[in-house]
Amino acid sequence: MKTILVPTDFSKNADKALEAAKQIAGKSGAKLLLMYAYQPYIADYR
Fold it and tell me: SUPFAM superfamilies this protein is in (predicted)?
């Protein structure tokens, strides 16, 4: 593995997943790539 993608929503479970990914990356020498996607609310004015 070269890169580990870690999606996050900043929840407690996401923090646990990040910790696991950090351990895997440390053992394998992979880079961590964090991703957070945000979809803004757009009101529907019809």
Answer: Adenine nucleotide alpha hydrolases-like (SSF52402)
